[in-house]
Amino acid sequence: MTEQTGGSLKSLRRTNQERVLRLLLKNGAMHRAEIARQIDVSRATVSTIVNEMLERGVLVPVEVPTAGALDGRIREQVAISRRAGVAAGLDFTLDRVAVHISDLEHHELASHSVRVPADATASERMEAAALLLFGSLQEHGLGQDDLVGLGVGVPGQVSTVSGVVGPSLPGQPWAGINVRSMFAERFGQPTLVDNNTRLEAMAEYLWGAGRQASTMLYVSLTSGIGAALVTGGTLYRGALGGAGEFGHVSVDFDGPACPCGNRGCLVQKAGSPAILQLVRPLLGADVGIGEVIAAAQEGDRACLGVLADVGAAVGHALVNVCNLLDPGRIIVGGPITALGDIVLDPIRAAISRRAMQAVGSTTEVVRAEFEEATQAGARGGAALVLQEAPQLASVLRRLAG
Ligand SMILES: [Zn+2]
C-alpha cells in the first residue's frame, strides 16, 4: 500500500514536471506565478517542482527587469538550461541551405547559410547541412547529442502520414524521398520535417510579426505562393499535409491552364515569373525581381502599376480566405514586401472592401519581420521543435531526467 502511494506520488511529480517543461519549451522564460496559472496548480507546488529542477540544473534562473515597474526591481523567471539541450532548424531552397540554433530559453545561438549547387542530390544537400550544423554546434562547445530536436524545411508537400515529399516541379531534388526517416537516421534525434513556408510561418509566430497572435495566416510571395495557418501555436497541415497551396487557388476559372491542373491560378498572376513577364518588355529581357523592386522604389510607374495589381490579386484571393477562416492577422513575406505599403495597401483595400464586414474591418495585414526566406525557414525549424517537441515523449523524458 505504502509502495503504491509512493509510486503514484512519484508519477504525479513526474507528470507535473513534464507539464512545467512543456510550458517552458513553448514559451521560453516564465515567472513561477504564470506557470502555476497556466497548469492550474498551486504556486507552492510549482515552487517545489521548479526548485528541484533548479537544483539539478535542468532549469536556470533568469533575471528580467519588469517593464514599467516603478520600483525598478528585478523579478526572477525560470527557463530550461542550455545544458539540457538546444533546438535546431535546417532549411533547404534550390540553391541554399541554412541552419539556426536556439537554446531552450528561445535565444538565438547561431544562424548561418551556405550555397549548394543547383544540381546537388538530396544526399549531398543533407551532408552540406550536416557540416554546417555540426560546425555551428561546435562554435558553442556543443555536439549532436545536445540536440533535443531538429526541424527541417524542404520545398514541396511533405506527407504527414508517410514523411515522403510529393511530386513537384522538375528539378525538385526531394520529390519521392522519405525526408523524415532520412534525416532521423542521419541525425539520430527527434526530427520534424515540413514545407519551407510552414517553417517561415512558425518563425513569424514565435519570434516575428505573429508574436502572441491567437490565429495568424502567413503568405509567402515568391516564384510560388504558399500560405500557412497557425492557430494557438499549432500549424494547420490538412488531412495529409497538403494544406497551404494558396498559389493554386483559382482567381479566374476561364484563365490559362496551370501545370497543377487548374485554370487561372493566383500564381499565374502574382508569382514572380508573372511579374517578370509583364515588366521585361519595358525594363529588359534579363531583369530579375530585385531590379523590379529597385525600379518601383525609384517611382517607375509601370513597375508600380504591376505591383499594385499583384497586391490586388493577392488581396482578392485573401478575401475568400478571410471569409472562410477569419485569420485575424495576415503576415506577408517574400522579396516584393520590401516595398511595404505599395504591395500591402492593395491587399488591405481588397479585404476591407470585399470581406464580410466583421472580418474585413478587423483583419490586420502586416509585413513579415524575417526577410531572407531560407534563414527564416531555418529559424522556423528551431521554432517548430520548441512548439511541437513538447509532443515528443522522448524530449520530455530526457529533460525530466
Ligand atoms: Zn495551379
Folded structure, characterized:
Helix 2 crosses helix 3 (43-56). The chain contains 14 helices and twelve strands. It has a five-stranded mixed β-sheet with strand order 5-4-3-6-7. The chain has 401 residues and is an alpha/beta fold. 42% of the residues are buried. It folds into three domains: 2-80, Orthogonal Bundle (Arc Repressor Mutant, subunit A); 85-203 and 386-400, Nucleotidyltransferase, domain 5 (2-Layer Sandwich), CATH 3.30.420; 211-368, ATPase, nucleotide binding domain (Nucleotidyltransferase, domain 5, 2-Layer Sandwich), CATH 3.30.420. The model has no long low-confidence stretch (mean pLDDT 91). The structure holds zinc ion. Zinc ion (ZN) is lined by residues 248, 258, 260, 262, 265.
Furnish the topology, listing elements before pairings.
Layout lengths: L1 H26 L4 H8 L3 H14 L2 E7 L8 E7 L5 E7 L3 E8 L4 E8 L6 H18 L7 E8 L24 H9 L3 E5 H12 L7 E7 L3 E7 L2 E2 L30 H5 L1 H12 L5 H9 L3 H25 L3 E5 L7 H14 L2 H4 L3 E4 L5 H16 L4 H8 L1
Parallel strand pairs: 3-6, 6-7, 8-11, 11-12
Antiparallel strand pairs: 1-2, 3-4, 4-5, 8-9, 9-10
Helix pairs in contact: 1-3, 1-14, 2-3, 6-13, 8-10, 9-10, 10-11
The chain binds zinc ion.
Unreliable residue runs: none
Tally of helical segments:
14
**Strand residue content:** 15-25%
- Which homologous superfamily in CATH is the superfamily of the largest domain? ATPase, nucleotide binding domain
> What is the typical, i.e. mean, pLDDT?
91
Percent helix, as a range, is 40-55%
Cα(first) to Cα(last) distance is 26 Å
How many domains make up the coordinates?
3
The biggest beta sheet reads: 5 strands, mixed
Ligand inventory reads: zinc ion
Spatially, the strands of the biggest sheet line up as 5-4-3-6-7
Instruction: Count every beta strand, where a strand is a DSSP E run of 2 or more residues.
Output: 12
